[in-house]
Design brief:
Rossmann fold; 7 helices; alpha/beta
């Protein structure tokens, strides 16, 4: 079983529709794109979007069949099986970013799709994150959450690699455990309605001993350690 198969097996829902929120840091966009391709290849109708901000499709390739930044064009489009669509809105102040569709339509944009994948957090390109009161932005419709940590954070000073952190503490296994336990940490916003997993990405940047320790962290949720770019896990 490869990484994407494993993630799929853990987040599947009894519902006919899979609505995924990707939170945390360390490869959210790459994971969204990879999952979008994975489900598209299964013949699903797939929608990619955000509840916060993402890279602008003007500058970033989301590897989808169609890109919409206009509401009317999006709603006039009828998706086909085995097709993926990106729908976001323009960021007026930052051309390199795109923003979430309006709150009023967030719940209805999912209607015609089998799988919807939202990037539901922001981390300013850092591999790890402590949340503020405003995030992550998890909607009531989401039934699966992938909470991410980038392992490029391991061994560095927290203030350098963790958004929202000013500590001089070194990021290690104990730090990751605290990140799981902290109410502002990795699992913020996740509840019993979600099929949730913790995904430690970039495992090729750490040694085998550290990777094995990650799998023994204390949590109620499954832990997956792998590389989304290589679609492999340990």
């Amino acid at each position: 079983m490869d990484l994407l198969d494993k993630i799929d097996s853990l987040i599947k829902s009894d519902s006919n529709k899979l609505i995924i929120g990707i939170t945390g840091a360390g490869g959210k966009t790459t994971t969204m794109i990879a999952l979008g391709q994975y489900y598209r290849d299964q013949g699903k109708k797939v929608l990619l979007s955000t509840t916060t901000k993402v890279q602008s499709p003007r500058f970033y390739n989301f590897e989808v069949n169609h890109v919409f930044i206009d509401e009317s064009e999006f709603f006039n489009h009828t998706p086909k099986n085995g097709e993926s669509v990106l729908f976001v809105e323009k960021h007026i102040m930052n051309a390199k970013k795109a923003i979430a569709p309006r709150d009023e339509i967030l719940s209805i944009i999912t209607n015609n799709y089998d799988v919807v994948i939202f990037e539901a957090d922001g981390a300013r390109c850092l591999p790890c994150k402590i949340h503020s009161d405003r995030d992550p932005v998890i909607t009531k419709d989401m039934n699966a959450i992938i909470a991410m940590v980038g392992l490029s954070s391991y061994g560095d000073m927290a203030a350098n690699v963790v958004m929202g952190e000013n500590s001089t503490q070194i990021v290690d296994i104990d730090y990751y455990q605290n990140l799981i336990d902290d109410e502002r940490g990795l699992l913020k916003g996740i509840n019993e309605n979600h099929n949730a997993i913790i995904f430690f990405n970039q495992f090729d940047l750490i040694d085998d001993k550290v990777a094995d320790s990650l799998k023994h962290l204390k949590t109620d949720y499954p832990i997956v350690v792998g590389s989304i770019e290589k679609n492999i896990m340990i």
